[in-house]
Design brief:
By secondary structure, the chain is α+β, with helices and mostly antiparallel strands. The protein contains 7 helices and 20 strands.
Length: 364
């Protein structure tokens, strides 16, 4: 519960747990890349670094014994070279104050969950309800900013094999997992141009991925524009099975209508083809697609790890790791109420050579 003093009146708003429950019922930042490729969440209590050398890509075998023998402890491999990567530290803040512009969807959601009262038409919200909505808006803002940052980090780790987090008051953190240079691929002829050979290009990428990553591709990620270029190629169409509820088994066109979520378009040689056209807003106010408009990648690993290191704050004396720790800060000089949240995430691919691709697959 956050407590505010306004015009000498004390106002108590919903707790962070209640605000979190409301947030989960809203439409948060799209988390397709995180959910599909970094679904293994690991909390590192008491640590601010990720032990990358301890990431395991094997399954230990059960020890073989005589039926009369005692149980044997499963022996793990000995890690001789363990490298540690310091996780970035996030601390977004948002001033809590009643807004003149009210988000109608948020207001309805708060009313449905009985955080604020439902007034008759034409009745303005009470001061208590105004502060409840302000608290919810600020909480959602910091939650969404962290979720967006994590989504970008997952994108970068998966597609580029590198995570770069620039700091506002420091040099930031750069993590390069050392992906093989051969896995960066650009077609000689863009797929929307005469003479393009998309099927042969994909076959080359599959071979490079198998050679350097030791695993075959399971997914292909691209923008809708890249997929439309593929759909225009006769040789690709002959081998592609569309994921459409129709009687046809081939792509007949790129389809109409916009999709902002990940969409399964079909399969080619056992590889699932996904289009993903979600945008994110950068700090300079411009927007950028999560998957570059002219980009195409093959991915061989879905079971990657998303680590969260300990929260370094006096309110966390046990040095526990958690996805985020929100708290309320009040200052008299200057007079301001803020919601702040700390988080220390780092996505790590279990196979540094688990993706191949690049940009330049269509003409921009």
């Amino acid at each position: 519960m956050a407590t505010f003093v306004f015009d000498d009146a004390q106002i108590d708003t919903a707790s962070f747990e209640e605000l979190g429950a409301v947030y989960d019922h809203s439409k948060p930042v799209d988390s397709f890349l995180r959910d599909r490729y970094f679904g293994n969440t690991i909390l590192l209590n008491g640590q601010d670094k990720v032990p990358v050398g301890e990431i395991k890509t094997y399954v230990p075998l059960a020890p073989a014994v005589l039926p009369t023998a005692q149980g044997r402890v499963i022996r793990d491999k000995v890690e001789l070279n363990v490298s540690y990567i310091k996780a970035p530290y996030l601390k977004p803040a948002c001033v809590v104050e009643p807004l003149s512009d009210i988000d109608a969807k948020m207001q309805k959601l708060l009313q449905s969950m009985r955080v604020i009262s439902t007034n008759a038409a034409g009745t303005p919200p009470s001061m208590q309800d105004e502060w409840e909505m302000a608290a919810a808006n600020s909480y959602w803002t910091i939650r969404q900013s962290i979720a967006a940052r994590i989504a970008l980090m997952c994108r970068d780790a998966l597609l580029y094999g590198k995570v770069v987090v620039q700091g506002d008051d420091n040099a930031g953190v750069t993590v390069d997992y050392g992906r093989h240079a051969d896995l960066k691929f650009n077609p000689l002829v863009a797929w929307d141009q005469v003479g393009a050979t998309p099927y042969e290009d994909i076959r080359k990428m599959v071979k490079n991925l198998t050679k350097h990553g030791k695993r075959r591709a399971v997914d292909a990620l691209m923008s809708s524009r890249v997929f439309e270029a593929l759909a225009d190629n006769e040789k690709f169409n002959k081998r592609f099975t569309a994921a459409l509820n129709t009687n046809v088994s081939r792509v007949f066109d790129g389809g109409f209508g916009g999709e902002t979520e990940a969409t399964l378009r079909g399969t080619l040689d056992g590889i699932e083809f996904w289009t993903y056209d979600v945008e994110f807003e950068k700090q300079d106010g411009t927007s950028e697609l999560m998957i570059p408009e002219d980009g195409f990648w093959l991915v061989s690993e879905r079971g990657n790890n998303l680590y969260f290191c300990m929260i370094k704050h006096r309110k966390n004396p046990a040095k526990l790791a958690m996805e985020l720790m929100p708290y309320h800060v009040f200052s008299d000089n200057p007079s301001v109420d803020e919601f702040i949240a700390d988080s220390s995430p780092l996505p790590v691919t279990i196979n540094k050579n688990g993706a191949a691709g690049g940009t330049g697959f269509i003409t921009l």
